[in-house]
Design goal:
The protein has ten helices and two strands. The protein has helices at residues 2-25, 51-71, 73-80, 85-110, 119-136, 140-146, 148-154, 156-171, 176-189, 191-211, and strands at residues 28-31, 37-40. The chain is globular, with a radius of gyration of 20 Å. The protein binds protoporphyrin IX containing FE. Protoporphyrin IX containing FE binds at residues 53, 56-57, 60-61, 63-64, 67, 99, 102-103, 106, 115, 121, 124-125, 127-128, 164, 167-168, 171, 173-174. GO terms for molecular function: FMN binding; heme binding; oxidoreductase activity, acting on diphenols and related substances as donors.
Length: 212
């Protein structure tokens, strides 16, 4: 029971992150009879999209949603005083895994060299490269080992989200909602704004305690 109380946050994140994988698995055929062959099940997509378009759509959307969510953790803490390192780390891992899945789909469908044919793919590719060290240092051991440099390294996430948004803007897909959420987060992090929110929150807590 104590274990569940301590760990339910990251467990829920992991479950939500894993569920869409089942949709993806239902869209492909994996055949080991002659080496490894992966084929797409063409009738599996909906919304007038081909299966490949749907695979890009699902993986890309989950990658950007998790990236937006993980970048909203600090503003959420500033506003509400709630912080959970394990939840944040599992969101970071979900971001990286969904981005890697998205890229692997592209590699299988188009090939590696195709990555360098469009500015939007190159932007996405640099974002993926940034996610690699973030993925491997998203744990307490790395935090302890890297000390101050860990925070510096994590700041690369700002570059990753900017490049990912550029990728989506250039593709002319849904980007505004993510840009607004991330943009508001950046405003809340500005030291003067952050201090105001924290003071307001602490005053509210003090008032509540004095009423009780
Ligand atoms: C090497 C890196 C990447 C490549 C080659 C790539 C490639 C693609 C391709 C081919 C599409 C479909 C375009 C279309 O339907 O016209 C797409 C869509 C998308 N990508 Fe990427 N991508 C990369 C990285 C990323 C990253 C890092 C993110 C976010 C974290 C991302 C998020 C998205 C989103 C949200 C869409 C739109 C999905 C939709 O609504 O249909 N991509 N990407």
């Amino acid at each position: 029971m104590n274990f569940l109380k301590k760990n339910y946050g990251w467990m829920i994140v992991t479950l939500i992150a894993i569920l869409p994988l089942f949709i993806i698995i239902n869209m492909i055929n994996i055949d080991f009879s002659n080496g490894l062959t992966i084929t797409l099940i063409e009738s599996a997509a909906s919304d007038g999209k081909t299966t490949l378009e749907m695979l890009y759509h699902i993986s890309g959307e989950f990658a950007i949603r998790w990236m937006t969510a993980v970048l909203s953790c600090t503003p959420f803490f500033i506003l509400f005083g709630i912080n959970n390192l394990y939840v944040r780390q599992s969101m970071g891992i979900a971001t990286a895994v969904w981005s890697f899945i998205h890229f692997v789909i592209f590699l299988v469908a188009e090939g590696f060299l195709e990555t360098f044919t469009q500015v939007n793919y190159i932007a996405g590719f640099i974002a993926i490269l940034i996610l690699i060290p973030l993925f491997f240092t998203s744990n307490k051991k790395s935090m302890r080992r890297l000390k101050k440099n860990w925070k510096k390294l994590q700041r690369l996430a700002y570059v990753a989200i900017s490049l990912s948004l550029l990728h989506i803007v250039l593709l002319d897909k849904t980007w505004l909602i993510y840009a607004v959420i991330v943009g508001l987060g950046f405003i809340i992090r500005i030291p003067v704004v952050k201090d105001k929110f924290i003071k307001l929150r602490l005053n509210k807590t003090r008032n509540k305690l004095s009423i009780q």
